[in-house]
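dude i think i finally got it to work??
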Amino acid sequence: MSIKFFVTDLDGTLLPSGQTVSPKNIQAVQDMVKAGIIFTVATGRMYKSALPIAKNLGVDVPIITYNGALIKSVSGEIFYSAYLDPQLIKELTDFCKNQNWHLQSYSNDNLYYPDYNEFAKGYEDALKISKGKAIGWNGLKDYTENVPKMLSISSGAEETADRIKILKAKFGDRINATRSNAEYTEITRPEVSKAAAVLILAKKFNVEVSEIMAIGDSYNDLPMLKAAGKSVAMGNSTPEVKSACDFVTGDCIDDGFAQAVYKYVLV
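look at this
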């Protein structure tokens, strides 16, 4: 198996929480880059949240952020962007308000929410990021410039699944609604996904699909894992992810990422 392009999810894959990547995983990334393998990160996170992690890896690589809506390198080069239509943002805001759902938005890589509640605090604590701005529901409709995604946070997996169904019934093919973990419903343009972003980079770097390996752990990774020539599920992955992948590695907390690199790539 000849892998020329390796793409990884962040949370639950490259790092267990927050901003800290283990020394073993960092070394695995650097060893791949030294071997001439193109490496990239694919995450639902904001660019400013993913950037410190990518910098910690010690390599200047493209970062697929906002579930594929923005591809931007560590040094600041923009490869691709796809922003939500301002009118659609206003409609989504009104709809989520009427549903009494928590909703947050990301305009020009800044985090906004109607009010600072337990969902906003939990999000910031989990990602170890600085506080966003509470601007009210009408405020969300004012900040519509360069919004790659909106995010609704629920109390659990069943509620998240219901929200995705409701959003798809209401907005149809105007949006892509996907689950990035048990509580997060990610809303982007319909053509946006980690998979689409990976294929954009593969074309840019003249890499065949058969030469791509992807690794991840959650539902929003599934399109990317299925699109890659070879795929690896983390040991802590959902059953659906494991069944969709070619290989299963160790848990994130046990450096399953590095295990996969040395077992399937640098052999």
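The mean pLDDT is 94.
im so relieved honestly
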